[in-house]
Fold this protein.
Amino acid sequence: MAMIEIDNVSKSFTLHNQGGATIEVMRGASLSVAAGECVALVGASGSGKSTVMRMIYGNYLAASGRIVVGGLDVARAAPREILSLRRDTLGYVSQFLRVVPRVPTLDVVAEPLRAVGVPEDEARDRSAAMLARLNVPETLWHLSPTTFSGGEQQRVNIARGFIHAYPALLLDEPTASLDGGNREVVLSLIEEAKARGAAIVGIFHDETARARVCDREIDVTGFSPQAAA
Amino acid sequence: MTPLLSVHGLTKRYGAHLGCGDVSFDLFPGEVLGIVGESGSGKSTLLNCLAGHLPPDAGQVIFDTRADGQRDVLTMSEPERRMLGRTDWAFVHQHARDGLRMGVSAGGNVGERLMAVGARNYGDIRDSAIDWLGRVEISETRVDDRPTTFSGGMQQRLQIARNLVTGPRLVFMDEPTGGLDVSVQARLLDLLRGLVRDMGLSAIVVTHDLAVVRLLAHRLMVMKDGHVVEHGLTDQVLDDPQHAYTQLLVSSVLQV
Protein backbone atom coordinates (compact mmCIF):
# COMPACT_ATOMS: atom_id res chain seq x y z
CA MET A 1 0.00 0.00 0.00
CA ALA A 2 1.24 3.48 -0.81
CA MET A 3 2.42 5.59 2.12
CA ILE A 4 1.98 8.85 0.16
CA GLU A 5 -0.65 9.04 -2.55
CA ILE A 6 -1.78 12.05 -4.57
CA ASP A 7 -4.81 11.58 -6.75
CA ASN A 8 -6.05 14.07 -9.35
CA VAL A 9 -5.06 17.16 -7.38
CA SER A 10 -5.47 20.70 -8.63
CA LYS A 11 -4.30 23.99 -7.18
CA SER A 12 -4.86 27.65 -7.95
CA PHE A 13 -4.02 30.94 -6.26
CA THR A 14 -6.48 33.85 -6.21
CA LEU A 15 -4.75 37.18 -5.67
CA HIS A 16 -7.52 39.31 -4.19
CA ASN A 17 -5.39 42.41 -3.85
CA GLN A 18 -4.01 42.25 -7.37
CA GLY A 19 -7.21 42.58 -9.35
CA GLY A 20 -8.56 39.23 -8.16
CA ALA A 21 -6.44 37.35 -10.69
CA THR A 22 -6.68 33.57 -10.40
CA ILE A 23 -3.61 31.61 -11.37
CA GLU A 24 -4.11 27.92 -11.93
CA VAL A 25 -0.81 26.19 -11.17
CA MET A 26 -1.68 22.51 -11.13
CA ARG A 27 -4.26 20.18 -12.63
CA GLY A 28 -4.68 16.41 -12.51
CA ALA A 29 -1.58 15.76 -10.41
CA SER A 30 -1.20 12.14 -9.29
CA LEU A 31 1.66 10.21 -7.75
CA SER A 32 2.20 7.34 -5.38
CA VAL A 33 5.14 6.49 -3.13
CA ALA A 34 5.47 3.16 -1.34
CA ALA A 35 7.22 2.48 1.97
CA GLY A 36 10.98 2.23 1.48
CA GLU A 37 10.84 4.15 -1.79
CA CYS A 38 12.43 7.50 -2.62
CA VAL A 39 10.92 9.54 -5.43
CA ALA A 40 12.53 12.66 -6.89
CA LEU A 41 10.41 15.52 -8.18
CA VAL A 42 12.05 17.06 -11.23
CA GLY A 43 11.21 19.92 -13.57
CA ALA A 44 12.47 23.42 -14.29
CA SER A 45 12.41 26.16 -11.62
CA GLY A 46 8.85 27.36 -11.15
CA SER A 47 7.32 24.14 -12.48
CA GLY A 48 5.76 23.42 -9.08
CA LYS A 49 8.06 20.99 -7.26
CA SER A 50 7.88 22.92 -3.98
CA THR A 51 4.13 23.42 -4.42
CA VAL A 52 3.66 19.63 -4.53
CA MET A 53 5.75 19.24 -1.36
CA ARG A 54 3.84 21.98 0.46
CA MET A 55 0.51 20.44 -0.49
CA ILE A 56 1.58 17.04 0.84
CA TYR A 57 2.59 18.74 4.10
CA GLY A 58 -0.78 20.53 4.37
CA ASN A 59 0.91 23.91 4.09
CA TYR A 60 -0.95 24.74 0.84
CA LEU A 61 -4.63 23.94 0.39
CA ALA A 62 -5.65 21.77 -2.56
CA ALA A 63 -8.55 23.01 -4.71
CA SER A 64 -9.64 19.44 -5.46
CA GLY A 65 -8.41 15.86 -5.36
CA ARG A 66 -7.02 13.61 -2.61
CA ILE A 67 -3.64 13.73 -0.84
CA VAL A 68 -3.39 10.69 1.40
CA VAL A 69 -0.43 10.28 3.77
CA GLY A 70 -0.41 7.29 6.11
CA GLY A 71 -4.16 6.88 5.62
CA LEU A 72 -5.09 10.52 6.27
CA ASP A 73 -6.49 12.71 3.48
CA VAL A 74 -4.56 15.91 4.09
CA ALA A 75 -6.77 17.79 1.61
CA ARG A 76 -9.79 17.28 3.89
CA ALA A 77 -8.32 16.69 7.34
CA ALA A 78 -8.98 18.94 10.35
CA PRO A 79 -5.99 21.02 11.52
CA ARG A 80 -5.46 18.86 14.60
CA GLU A 81 -5.31 15.71 12.44
CA ILE A 82 -2.64 17.32 10.27
CA LEU A 83 -0.73 18.40 13.38
CA SER A 84 -0.71 14.86 14.73
CA LEU A 85 0.32 13.53 11.29
CA ARG A 86 3.26 15.96 11.29
CA ARG A 87 4.21 15.00 14.82
CA ASP A 88 4.19 11.23 14.36
CA THR A 89 4.29 10.33 10.69
CA LEU A 90 5.36 13.06 8.28
CA GLY A 91 8.70 14.86 8.54
CA TYR A 92 9.81 17.81 6.41
CA VAL A 93 13.33 19.08 5.82
CA SER A 94 12.79 22.53 4.34
CA GLN A 95 15.38 24.97 3.08
CA PHE A 96 14.45 27.49 5.75
CA LEU A 97 15.04 27.23 9.47
CA ARG A 98 12.22 28.75 11.52
CA VAL A 99 12.83 28.57 15.25
CA VAL A 100 12.26 30.59 18.41
CA PRO A 101 15.39 32.75 18.81
CA ARG A 102 17.52 32.00 21.88
CA VAL A 103 16.71 28.29 21.99
CA PRO A 104 19.95 26.22 21.92
CA THR A 105 20.57 24.05 18.86
CA LEU A 106 20.59 20.92 21.03
CA ASP A 107 16.98 21.62 22.08
CA VAL A 108 15.89 22.70 18.59
CA VAL A 109 16.97 19.30 17.26
CA ALA A 110 15.55 17.41 20.26
CA GLU A 111 12.13 19.06 19.90
CA PRO A 112 10.54 16.53 17.48
CA LEU A 113 11.45 13.77 19.98
CA ARG A 114 10.06 15.72 22.95
CA ALA A 115 6.85 16.18 20.97
CA VAL A 116 6.37 12.41 20.69
CA GLY A 117 7.04 11.97 24.41
CA VAL A 118 10.73 11.00 24.54
CA PRO A 119 12.15 12.03 27.96
CA GLU A 120 14.32 15.15 28.01
CA ASP A 121 17.67 13.48 28.75
CA GLU A 122 17.28 10.81 26.10
CA ALA A 123 16.08 13.38 23.53
CA ARG A 124 19.15 15.56 24.26
CA ASP A 125 21.52 12.59 23.99
CA ARG A 126 20.08 11.57 20.65
CA SER A 127 20.18 15.19 19.49
CA ALA A 128 23.88 15.41 20.41
CA ALA A 129 24.63 12.18 18.55
CA MET A 130 22.83 13.43 15.44
CA LEU A 131 24.61 16.81 15.52
CA ALA A 132 27.96 15.06 15.94
CA ARG A 133 27.22 12.80 13.01
CA LEU A 134 26.44 15.86 10.87
CA ASN A 135 29.72 17.47 11.99
CA VAL A 136 28.09 20.45 13.71
CA PRO A 137 30.89 21.56 16.10
CA GLU A 138 30.08 20.90 19.77
CA THR A 139 30.92 24.53 20.57
CA LEU A 140 27.73 25.51 18.68
CA TRP A 141 25.31 23.12 20.37
CA HIS A 142 24.45 25.49 23.18
CA LEU A 143 23.93 28.46 20.88
CA SER A 144 20.79 29.33 18.93
CA PRO A 145 21.08 28.32 15.25
CA THR A 146 19.63 31.68 14.14
CA THR A 147 23.16 33.11 13.82
CA PHE A 148 24.67 30.06 12.06
CA SER A 149 25.95 29.97 8.48
CA GLY A 150 23.66 28.65 5.73
CA GLY A 151 25.33 25.23 5.66
CA GLU A 152 25.16 24.87 9.45
CA GLN A 153 21.48 25.88 9.52
CA GLN A 154 20.78 23.34 6.83
CA ARG A 155 22.41 20.59 8.86
CA VAL A 156 20.30 21.60 11.87
CA ASN A 157 17.21 21.24 9.65
CA ILE A 158 18.38 17.83 8.49
CA ALA A 159 19.08 16.74 12.06
CA ARG A 160 15.51 17.74 13.04
CA GLY A 161 14.10 15.85 10.05
CA PHE A 162 15.94 12.61 10.71
CA ILE A 163 16.02 12.45 14.51
CA HIS A 164 12.57 10.87 14.71
CA ALA A 165 11.93 7.80 12.52
CA TYR A 166 9.12 9.37 10.46
CA PRO A 167 7.43 6.82 8.17
CA ALA A 168 7.12 9.55 5.50
CA LEU A 169 9.62 12.29 4.68
CA LEU A 170 9.72 15.35 2.44
CA LEU A 171 13.21 16.61 1.57
CA ASP A 172 13.68 19.97 -0.10
CA GLU A 173 17.25 20.14 -1.48
CA PRO A 174 18.81 18.26 1.46
CA THR A 175 22.33 18.28 0.00
CA ALA A 176 22.45 21.86 -1.34
CA SER A 177 25.23 24.01 0.16
CA LEU A 178 26.91 21.03 1.89
CA ASP A 179 30.55 19.99 1.41
CA GLY A 180 31.48 16.48 0.26
CA GLY A 181 31.76 14.90 3.71
CA ASN A 182 28.46 16.22 4.98
CA ARG A 183 26.76 15.41 1.71
CA GLU A 184 27.85 11.81 2.23
CA VAL A 185 26.38 11.79 5.77
CA VAL A 186 23.03 13.07 4.48
CA LEU A 187 22.92 10.48 1.69
CA SER A 188 23.55 7.68 4.20
CA LEU A 189 20.80 9.08 6.46
CA ILE A 190 18.44 8.90 3.47
CA GLU A 191 19.55 5.33 2.68
CA GLU A 192 19.01 4.29 6.31
CA ALA A 193 15.55 5.87 6.34
CA LYS A 194 14.63 3.95 3.18
CA ALA A 195 15.98 0.73 4.69
CA ARG A 196 13.71 1.11 7.73
CA GLY A 197 10.75 1.61 5.37
CA ALA A 198 10.32 5.39 5.08
CA ALA A 199 8.55 6.72 1.99
CA ILE A 200 10.44 9.76 0.72
CA VAL A 201 9.60 12.54 -1.73
CA GLY A 202 12.45 14.91 -2.48
CA ILE A 203 13.77 17.72 -4.62
CA PHE A 204 17.44 17.18 -5.52
CA HIS A 205 19.25 19.46 -7.91
CA ASP A 206 22.37 17.43 -7.19
CA GLU A 207 22.13 14.82 -9.99
CA THR A 208 24.59 12.28 -8.60
CA ALA A 209 22.83 12.38 -5.23
CA ARG A 210 19.52 11.85 -6.98
CA ALA A 211 20.88 8.91 -8.98
CA ARG A 212 22.20 7.30 -5.82
CA VAL A 213 19.19 7.51 -3.47
CA CYS A 214 16.14 7.89 -5.71
CA ASP A 215 14.26 4.95 -7.18
CA ARG A 216 12.18 7.01 -9.61
CA GLU A 217 11.80 10.52 -10.99
CA ILE A 218 8.51 12.31 -11.52
CA ASP A 219 8.53 15.33 -13.83
CA VAL A 220 6.04 17.79 -12.33
CA THR A 221 5.82 19.62 -15.67
CA GLY A 222 3.18 16.97 -16.38
CA PHE A 223 1.05 18.40 -13.53
CA SER A 224 0.76 21.87 -15.11
CA PRO A 225 -2.66 22.92 -16.42
CA GLN A 226 -1.16 23.33 -19.92
CA ALA A 227 0.00 19.71 -19.91
CA ALA A 228 -3.37 18.47 -18.71
CA ALA A 229 -5.32 20.55 -21.24
CA MET B 1 -11.98 13.29 21.75
CA THR B 2 -14.07 15.88 23.61
CA PRO B 3 -13.09 19.48 22.88
CA LEU B 4 -11.87 21.34 25.95
CA LEU B 5 -13.77 24.40 24.78
CA SER B 6 -16.58 24.48 22.28
CA VAL B 7 -17.89 27.87 21.18
CA HIS B 8 -21.14 28.27 19.23
CA GLY B 9 -22.55 31.42 17.65
CA LEU B 10 -20.95 33.85 20.07
CA THR B 11 -22.16 37.39 19.39
CA LYS B 12 -21.58 40.69 21.16
CA ARG B 13 -22.98 44.06 20.11
CA TYR B 14 -22.20 47.53 21.41
CA GLY B 15 -25.47 49.26 20.48
CA ALA B 16 -25.56 49.28 16.70
CA HIS B 17 -21.90 48.33 16.44
CA LEU B 18 -20.93 44.68 16.17
CA GLY B 19 -18.17 43.62 18.58
CA CYS B 20 -17.98 40.04 17.37
CA GLY B 21 -20.55 38.12 15.36
CA ASP B 22 -21.50 34.46 15.24
CA VAL B 23 -18.10 33.05 16.22
CA SER B 24 -17.88 29.25 16.49
CA PHE B 25 -14.88 26.96 17.03
CA ASP B 26 -13.61 23.97 19.01
CA LEU B 27 -10.37 23.93 20.99
CA PHE B 28 -8.82 20.58 21.90
CA PRO B 29 -6.50 19.77 24.83
CA GLY B 30 -2.90 20.81 24.12
CA GLU B 31 -3.85 23.17 21.30
CA VAL B 32 -2.86 26.82 20.99
CA LEU B 33 -5.26 28.94 18.97
CA GLY B 34 -4.05 32.32 17.71
CA ILE B 35 -6.49 35.14 16.94
CA VAL B 36 -5.18 37.93 14.71
CA GLY B 37 -6.71 41.03 13.19
CA GLU B 38 -6.18 44.77 13.26
CA SER B 39 -7.30 47.03 16.13
CA GLY B 40 -11.08 47.08 16.33
CA SER B 41 -11.50 43.76 14.52
CA GLY B 42 -13.20 42.25 17.58
CA LYS B 43 -10.43 39.95 18.79
CA SER B 44 -10.24 41.39 22.30
CA THR B 45 -14.04 41.51 22.56
CA LEU B 46 -14.12 37.84 21.64
CA LEU B 47 -11.42 36.96 24.19
CA ASN B 48 -13.22 38.87 26.94
CA CYS B 49 -16.56 37.21 26.12
CA LEU B 50 -14.90 33.78 26.20
CA ALA B 51 -13.19 34.46 29.51
CA GLY B 52 -16.39 35.72 31.13
CA HIS B 53 -15.26 39.34 31.46
CA LEU B 54 -17.97 40.58 29.09
CA PRO B 55 -21.52 39.20 28.78
CA PRO B 56 -22.21 38.21 25.14
CA ASP B 57 -25.65 38.79 23.57
CA ALA B 58 -25.94 35.32 22.13
CA GLY B 59 -24.10 32.02 21.89
CA GLN B 60 -22.65 29.24 24.01
CA VAL B 61 -19.20 28.72 25.54
CA ILE B 62 -19.06 25.06 26.54
CA PHE B 63 -16.13 24.00 28.73
CA ASP B 64 -15.25 20.42 29.61
CA THR B 65 -15.15 20.75 33.40
CA ARG B 66 -13.24 18.23 35.54
CA ALA B 67 -16.20 17.53 37.81
CA ASP B 68 -19.31 17.63 35.60
CA GLY B 69 -18.09 17.31 31.99
CA GLN B 70 -19.33 19.79 29.41
CA ARG B 71 -21.02 22.88 30.88
CA ASP B 72 -22.10 26.15 29.31
CA VAL B 73 -20.00 28.74 31.10
CA LEU B 74 -22.48 31.49 30.28
CA THR B 75 -25.28 29.83 32.25
CA MET B 76 -23.11 28.97 35.27
CA SER B 77 -23.69 30.76 38.54
CA GLU B 78 -21.30 33.60 39.36
CA PRO B 79 -19.50 31.64 42.16
CA GLU B 80 -19.05 28.65 39.84
CA ARG B 81 -17.59 30.85 37.16
CA ARG B 82 -15.31 32.59 39.62
CA MET B 83 -14.05 29.23 40.85
CA LEU B 84 -13.29 28.25 37.26
CA GLY B 85 -11.36 31.49 36.86
CA ARG B 86 -9.19 30.56 39.84
CA THR B 87 -8.61 26.91 38.99
CA ASP B 88 -8.89 25.61 35.43
CA TRP B 89 -8.74 28.98 33.69
CA ALA B 90 -6.09 31.64 33.62
CA PHE B 91 -5.93 35.04 31.97
CA VAL B 92 -2.66 36.72 31.03
CA HIS B 93 -3.19 40.43 30.45
CA GLN B 94 -1.23 42.52 27.98
CA HIS B 95 -0.18 44.86 30.77
CA ALA B 96 1.25 42.81 33.63
CA ARG B 97 0.04 45.47 36.08
CA ASP B 98 -3.58 44.46 35.27
CA GLY B 99 -2.91 40.87 36.27
CA LEU B 100 -0.64 41.43 39.28
CA ARG B 101 -1.09 42.92 42.73
CA MET B 102 1.58 45.57 42.65
CA GLY B 103 1.65 46.11 46.42
CA VAL B 104 2.31 42.45 47.21
CA SER B 105 5.68 40.64 46.93
CA ALA B 106 6.48 38.41 43.94
CA GLY B 107 6.13 35.33 46.11
CA GLY B 108 2.86 36.67 47.49
CA ASN B 109 1.50 37.19 43.99
CA VAL B 110 2.09 33.54 43.15
CA GLY B 111 1.06 32.22 46.57
CA GLU B 112 -2.18 34.20 46.63
CA ARG B 113 -3.64 32.18 43.79
CA LEU B 114 -2.77 28.94 45.58
CA MET B 115 -4.45 30.20 48.76
CA ALA B 116 -7.55 31.07 46.74
CA VAL B 117 -7.95 27.37 45.97
CA GLY B 118 -7.43 26.29 49.56
CA ALA B 119 -3.67 25.93 50.13
CA ARG B 120 -2.91 26.81 53.77
CA ASN B 121 0.58 25.53 54.62
CA TYR B 122 2.93 28.53 54.47
CA GLY B 123 6.04 26.45 53.78
CA ASP B 124 4.41 24.58 50.90
CA ILE B 125 3.05 27.78 49.40
CA ARG B 126 6.43 29.47 49.58
CA ASP B 127 8.14 26.42 48.03
CA SER B 128 5.64 26.37 45.18
CA ALA B 129 6.09 30.08 44.64
CA ILE B 130 9.88 29.75 44.48
CA ASP B 131 9.60 26.75 42.16
CA TRP B 132 7.39 28.77 39.80
CA LEU B 133 9.58 31.85 39.93
CA GLY B 134 12.44 29.56 38.88
CA ARG B 135 10.45 28.15 35.99
CA VAL B 136 9.84 31.65 34.63
CA GLU B 137 13.50 32.45 35.27
CA ILE B 138 13.08 34.86 38.18
CA SER B 139 15.78 34.38 40.82
CA GLU B 140 14.79 33.11 44.26
CA THR B 141 16.51 36.16 45.71
CA ARG B 142 13.68 38.33 44.32
CA VAL B 143 10.85 36.39 46.00
CA ASP B 144 10.24 39.07 48.62
CA ASP B 145 10.53 42.04 46.23
CA ARG B 146 7.48 43.82 44.91
CA PRO B 147 6.73 43.69 41.18
CA THR B 148 7.13 47.47 41.04
CA THR B 149 10.89 46.86 41.28
CA PHE B 150 10.81 44.44 38.27
CA SER B 151 11.40 45.21 34.59
CA GLY B 152 8.46 44.89 32.16
CA GLY B 153 9.62 41.47 30.94
CA MET B 154 10.02 40.18 34.50
CA GLN B 155 6.57 41.47 35.45
CA GLN B 156 5.11 39.62 32.47
CA ARG B 157 6.88 36.40 33.50
CA LEU B 158 5.66 36.88 37.07
CA GLN B 159 2.12 37.28 35.78
CA ILE B 160 2.49 34.00 33.90
CA ALA B 161 3.80 32.23 37.02
CA ARG B 162 0.87 33.59 39.08
CA ASN B 163 -1.55 32.30 36.46
CA LEU B 164 -0.04 28.86 35.95
CA VAL B 165 0.74 27.87 39.55
CA THR B 166 -2.71 26.30 40.03
CA GLY B 167 -2.23 24.08 36.96
CA PRO B 168 -4.97 25.55 34.75
CA ARG B 169 -6.05 23.70 31.63
CA LEU B 170 -6.97 26.76 29.57
CA VAL B 171 -5.07 30.04 29.37
CA PHE B 172 -6.37 33.19 27.70
CA MET B 173 -3.64 35.59 26.61
CA ASP B 174 -4.12 39.13 25.39
CA GLU B 175 -1.00 40.31 23.49
CA PRO B 176 1.30 38.49 25.95
CA THR B 177 4.49 39.69 24.25
CA GLY B 178 3.24 43.16 23.27
CA GLY B 179 5.32 46.05 24.51
CA LEU B 180 8.33 43.88 25.35
CA ASP B 181 11.82 44.06 23.87
CA VAL B 182 12.38 41.59 21.06
CA SER B 183 14.94 39.61 23.10
CA VAL B 184 12.49 39.34 26.01
CA GLN B 185 9.72 38.29 23.62
CA ALA B 186 11.81 35.38 22.36
CA ARG B 187 12.49 34.25 25.91
CA LEU B 188 8.80 34.42 26.77
CA LEU B 189 7.82 32.51 23.62
CA ASP B 190 10.27 29.76 24.45
CA LEU B 191 8.88 29.59 27.98
CA LEU B 192 5.25 29.45 26.80
CA ARG B 193 6.01 26.73 24.24
CA GLY B 194 7.70 24.60 26.88
CA LEU B 195 4.78 25.01 29.27
CA VAL B 196 2.24 24.10 26.59
CA ARG B 197 4.21 20.97 25.72
CA ASP B 198 5.05 19.84 29.26
CA MET B 199 1.74 20.68 30.98
CA GLY B 200 -0.57 19.88 28.04
CA LEU B 201 -2.06 23.38 28.32
CA SER B 202 -4.51 24.77 25.83
CA ALA B 203 -4.34 28.47 25.09
CA ILE B 204 -6.11 31.19 23.14
CA VAL B 205 -3.69 33.97 22.22
CA VAL B 206 -4.82 37.31 20.84
CA THR B 207 -2.07 39.23 19.09
CA HIS B 208 -1.39 41.39 16.08
CA ASP B 209 2.11 39.93 15.70
CA LEU B 210 2.17 37.32 12.93
CA ALA B 211 5.70 36.19 13.83
CA VAL B 212 4.50 35.37 17.36
CA VAL B 213 1.56 33.28 16.15
CA ARG B 214 3.71 31.40 13.65
CA LEU B 215 5.95 30.20 16.45
CA LEU B 216 3.35 29.76 19.16
CA ALA B 217 -0.07 28.89 17.70
CA HIS B 218 -1.10 25.60 16.12
CA ARG B 219 -4.21 27.09 14.59
CA LEU B 220 -5.09 30.58 13.52
CA MET B 221 -8.31 32.57 13.29
CA VAL B 222 -8.32 35.84 11.34
CA MET B 223 -10.90 38.48 12.35
CA LYS B 224 -12.16 41.53 10.52
CA ASP B 225 -15.07 43.78 11.47
CA GLY B 226 -16.21 41.35 14.18
CA HIS B 227 -16.29 38.30 11.93
CA VAL B 228 -13.93 35.36 11.55
CA VAL B 229 -12.91 35.58 7.89
CA GLU B 230 -10.44 32.70 7.86
CA HIS B 231 -9.56 29.79 10.14
CA GLY B 232 -7.04 26.97 9.73
CA LEU B 233 -3.62 25.54 10.43
CA THR B 234 -1.34 28.48 11.30
CA ASP B 235 1.32 27.95 8.63
CA GLN B 236 -1.34 27.22 6.00
CA VAL B 237 -3.25 30.43 6.74
CA LEU B 238 -0.03 32.47 6.66
CA ASP B 239 1.53 30.80 3.59
CA ASP B 240 -1.60 30.19 1.50
CA PRO B 241 -4.13 32.78 2.71
CA GLN B 242 -7.51 32.50 1.02
CA HIS B 243 -9.35 35.65 2.13
CA ALA B 244 -8.56 39.08 0.69
CA TYR B 245 -8.03 40.53 4.16
CA THR B 246 -5.62 37.78 5.26
CA GLN B 247 -3.65 38.24 2.03
CA LEU B 248 -3.39 41.94 2.78
CA LEU B 249 -2.35 41.28 6.39
CA VAL B 250 0.36 38.77 5.41
CA SER B 251 1.72 40.89 2.55
CA SER B 252 1.89 43.97 4.78
CA VAL B 253 4.46 42.50 7.18
CA LEU B 254 7.82 44.20 6.87
CA GLN B 255 10.65 41.78 6.22
CA VAL B 256 13.64 42.03 8.52
Remarks:
- The longest helix of chain A spans residues 180-195.
- The longest strand of chain A covers residues 2-15.
- Residues 48 and 104 of chain A are 34 Å apart (CA to CA).
- Residues 31-61+76-228 of chain A form a domain with the Rossmann fold fold (CATH 3.40.50.300).
